[in-house]
Amino acid sequence: MLNIRYRLDDLEKNFAAWSPQPLEVADSELLQLPDHLRRTYLTVASRGECDATVVSNLTGRCRAVESNYLNQLARLGWLSRRRISKTINFSPVCERLMKQATVLQDEKSLD
Length: 111
Hints:
- The protein is 63% helix and 11% strand.
- It contains six helices and two strands.
């Protein structure tokens, strides 16, 4: 029980420190993701920002598989990518970025 409590405290601290706050995702939208991608997304969302190695350690799947899933989620617009030195970190998309992406898609469709 103490491990669970410590983990919850860690999660709350990670989410409180985020600037901007992550996008609020409805349960019905999460259910639209396949199980394997949902598990990866929830792992990244619980950590805030992490790379494929960290996600693979948390999920128990190999790093190459997690890297593939993370890139799929980034292409679908669920995660954003950021390169730091040689590693690529993934984080959940915030509302501001979602609005910018929607505006860009609308502009492209008008052209």
